[in-house]
Amino acid sequence: MDINYELYKVFYYVATTLSFSEASKKLFISQSAVSQSVKALEKKLDQPLFIRSTKKVQLTPEGEILLRHVEPAMNLIKRGEAQIADSIAGGGQIRIGASDTICRYFLVPYLKRFHREFPNVHIKVTNQTSIRCVDLLENGQVDLIFTNYPNSYLSNMYTIKKIKRFHDVFVANDSFSSLRSRNLSLAQLLEHPILMLDKKSTTSEFLHSLFQQHQLDLVPEVELSSNDLLLDLAKIGLGIAFVPDYCINESSDDLFIVGIKNTLPEREIVAAYNTHIPIPKATMEFLNYFKEIS
Fold it and tell me: Which of 48, 51, 148, 219 yields a CA-CA distance of 20 to 30 A from 267?
């Protein structure tokens, strides 16, 4: 099927903005031209791609399928254009995906060093959960991600570099002072309110799996998308928070680690990238800052 690339380009901008007028602004063409291009593509594919109304535009199921394939292709083209521009300008760009926690407590010193050594390289960091970061990598929106591992969403198509080991810990404030000198079983922990990350995270997958292995049903008191918020709630005595140990610092002096009888499995922070796509030179320079652990 011979379809002009420009038609897919127009479709992409309408599909991602869900607006014919916004797409026309981004493409610097008239709204009428956008509408005609979409109609031409729909005619060639013999499928409706959008549901149009006076108030909004929505993708049809066929449109959603097409977007899942067109978006990675558009991002690859943008990446190629950016790499060519960078080679001419003598600078470069690194596009990284990482969770808020990994960025704040692990990556910042490395980003500071990289910016000092390569001031002309543009650094773009996209914050998402470790699970969502895999989607960013798959769609070509980033070149490199840093994620907690194990991560069930990482497939064999990605190269994984293990760069830091860590343990998860349960922390509480003096509202739970009676637990200071005790080692609790997982069953005993469930007698207290548990604060943890929401289900769209590798940490939630990890902890739920751990309790299931002991035939226990974990029902948390609070589920949030931020470890910092979990620590804040633990500091006011709302419950026992489950967080990576590298989040605990001087500002956590009013918290203590709750001892448990069960030894928690170790986890890692890993850097991952797509094996089948060339990585920009600047990104490889950044990746070389991290030594692989055995």
Answer: 219
* 276 φ/ψ angles, rounded to the nearest 5 degrees: -95, 0
Q: Could you tell me how many helices (H) and strands (E) the chain has, helices first?
A: 11, 14
- Residue 234: count other Cβ atoms within 10 Å of its Cβ: 26
Q: What percent of the chain has pLDDT over 90?
A: 76
Instruction: Tell me the pLDDT tens digit for each residue of 93-113.
Output: 899 999 999 999 999 999 999
Using CB atoms within 10 Å of the CB of residue 227, give its burial: 0 to 12 exposed, 13 to 18 middle, 19+ buried. Answer: buried
Residues 29 and 18: beta-carbon distance below 8 Å: no
Give the closest residue to 4 by CA, choosing from 45, 59, 52, 64. Answer: 45
CA distance 121 to 86: 9
Burial class (CB in 10 A: 0-12, 13-18, 19+), 166: middle
Tokens 């002009």 belong to 4
Whole-number Cα distances in Å, 227 to 27, 166, 252, 287? 40, 15, 12, 25
Instruction: Render pLDDT for 217-258 as a digit per residue (tens, 0 to 9).
Output: 999 999 999 999 999 999 999 999 999 999 998 767 899 999
From the list 125, 99, 101, the residue with the least C-alpha distance to 112 is 125
Q: Which two tokens mark 259?
A: 């001892």
